[in-house]
Amino acid sequence: VETDLGEFIIQLRGESPAHIITPAVHLRKEEVGETFRDNLGIPYTEDIPTMTEAARERLRQSFF
Known about the structure:
Layout: H1 5-13, H2 29-40, H3 48-63
């Protein structure tokens, strides 16, 4: 399980990183919202803190 948020998003999408340091830099927040809706089962949102919290919760489940 990837712990870097950008890498986590890219893995959910089944893509290759766009850049070694910022792998999800090419994605708009709308695209990330759709990815999280489709893969994490959360309601669609463009709110970045909400998306970050959803990713944090999913990653916690993987570790605990």
